[in-house]
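Could you join me in thinking about how sequence relates to backbone shape in a protein? Label the sequence line and the structure token line clearly, so we can match residues to local backbone shapes. Once you have written the record down, we can walk along the chain together.
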Amino acid sequence: MQILTGEFLLSVQKILIFRARLQIHITSLIDVIFMLVIFFMIGSTFEKPALAVSLPKASSGEVMRQQMRTVSLDREGVLYLAGERIEEEALKQRLRAYTQEEPDMQIALDCDGALAFQRVTEIMDLLTAVGVRHVAIRHEFPR
């Protein structure tokens, strides 16, 4: 049996104090990381296409950074506004209301690559008739 001396207890106490000083307090680090996560979530846009459209391919064009309303045409020529199926007359009414609120509104036209060009022309004509002055046809850029 060993008898614990005062020196041994003193050295054990010093070791425990030293270990207590070595603790890393991560509370403030967690706050900073949480703030960074919020910053990037707010600053990022998660735009997922609401409709599976096989966009046509083009070798030129420019990337549009502005917010646009999206009109889509699928392979069968069915119309969608912001991912919701819509009839032509309802689309006309909605777009007229939008153009009254925002005369310089921009529309992004998503057309399936297999869609007949006549249908695309009809929709472009519809957009012009309701007062939309800025239409961008979306396409895929070569990688």
